[in-house]
Amino acid sequence: MKKLSVIVPIYNAEAYINKCVDSLLVQTFKDFELLLIDDGSPDKSGEICDRYAQKDSRVRVFHKENGGVSSARNLELDNAQGEWISFVDADDILDDNYYEVMLNNLEDNDLILCDI
Questions:
Q1: Using alpha carbons only, what angle is made at residue 6 by residues 95 and 38, rounded to the nearest 5 degrees?
Q2: Res 2: pLDDT
Q3: 22: which residues sit within 8 A by CB, 6+ positions away?
Q4: Which residues contact 21 (CB under 8 A, 6 or more apart)?
Q5: Which DSSP helix (H) or strand (E) runs through 47?
Q6: CA–CA separation, 77 and 57 (whole Å)
Q7: Are the beta carbons of 19 and 90 closer than 8 angstroms?
Q8: What is the Cα–Cα distance from 22 to 93, expressed in whole angstroms?
């Protein structure tokens, strides 16, 4: 399998970031890094992210001044080490086999889009 970088930009997400990150850390596919970027949140989102990084070595946290979701994603792209990139919003919750199913069905694709 290929290594995956999961990118989550975060702004004022303290009410739901735990559900998002928990759904990512219990994935059946384990070979990924989780990049959380606190985009200058005035709430406790950054502290919550830091706690996850202390508990799980796959989690890396970045803190920056607020610049919007695009600047947050760009910073994470600059730091991503995976061959594959996945963008997740801070209020998303993924099924526990989401990445396993997706990556097992790659074949010769360069891009996979998932939507509800």
A1: 110
A2: 55
A3: none
A4: 8, 34, 36, 48, 49, 52, 59
A5: helix 45-55
A6: 19
A7: no
A8: 8
| 3-class secondary-structure state, position 55 | helix
Q: State the pLDDT at residue 116.
A: 59
As given in the structure block, the two tokens for residue 21 are 């990150």
Q: What is the spatial distance between Cα 71 and Cα 64, in angstroms, rounded to a whole number?
A: 10
Structure tokens at 86: 């996945």
List the beta bridge partners of residue 5: 33, 85
d(CA 26, CA 71): 28
Contact 8, 90 (CB under 8 A): yes
Question: In order along the chain (116 residues), what is the average pLDDT of each group of 10 residues?
Answer: 85 97 97 96 97 97 92 87 92 94 77 67
Residue 1: what pLDDT? 38
DSSP-assigned states of every residue in 65-114: ----HHHHHHHHHHH---SEEEE--TT----TTHHHHHHHT-TT-S----
